[in-house]
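Armadillo repeat-containing domain-containing protein
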Amino acid sequence: MLMAWCCLVIAGPVATAFDVCVTKLLAHVDVAPQAHVIGLVHAGLQLWACHLARITTHESQSGRLLVAACKRLFMQSKDPANDERFCHVTVVETLLGVLSSQCAHSVPTQALIYVAGVLKNVSGSARMVTLLSTNGAIAVFSKALQVTFDKDVNAAAQVLVQVTAILRNLAEHKQCLKQFWHAHVIQALCDLLPAYASHGELVLNVSRILSKLTLHEAGRTQVNKGKHNLRHLLKLLDGDTRSRQQDAALVIRLAFILGNLTATNDRNRKAIVTLGAVPPLVRMLKEYHIRYVHESPDNDTSATTAEDVLVKLVRLLANAAIHTSVGPMLGTVPGIEVLLDVLDHAKVARHEELMLNVVSCLTNLSFYS
């Protein structure tokens, strides 16, 4: 009732008094002992949510103080020893309220980045996962993915990086999955791909979440409902050669997602051909085979990464080859014979998963020969 009344008072002496109150309260955050920071910022954010502070830009005094207060809260959240201090329903509700679509436009974007960063930092604890899942956090995050926070695309992307990092943490917990399905998180994530294709960190976060969610039938069903989702994923996988070499982690996850989507879905298998993905896939197969063969045995990380990329790419091709029209076509694609070279090297290196995937792919291809 009090909050509803407050929201109606948007001008006059009461609003001015609240401007002063918010400013003075936030000014104390910078000098407050660490033990009181969460409480002070919590109170400041609640007052801000009343929309009584009339000046809400980053350049205003209150805006600068809000950003500074949220930054200090963010710094405190980076220490795992403070996790329990954040694990209170009122604190969680207030932080989620800041990210809600109703409040997001009245808060400086930098403050949103810090608030989302706080939730990301503390979302690893089991208690916080429970608090977030029982307070509708996933629905809030899903809507946050669809909000344009700022005209500055880079600033908006930074908010989205933090939000997707939280979702990545929550996607690992079975207790959260139903909320992912109900909140239509998958489509919100897929919609980010064409808009932010050049933002490596954000796209990688999205791919990490999708790689977890597409392990489940409900997740794959939601991806398949989107008319252009598969096209966007394949286009992102194609990428330019330099970006792929710099970020094999993205290739691994995209190929894994596509492997999940083609594991049991014949329409998706055929789409690999109709969307023109076969030549780029074979080209990548050859590229990573070269890296796989020529990586120094001493460079464990690079060698393992090249192997992992090949495991995922070969699995994807093996799944696609199950389709009655895709299999025969794949067997005649120039360059597909590199699979035999990959198999030879995998045998020597005793990389069992890669060997099994190549054998499976060759078996599916030979079925139509």
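thats it. Confidence is low (pLDDT under 50) at residues 1-10. The first helix runs from residue 2 to 8. bye
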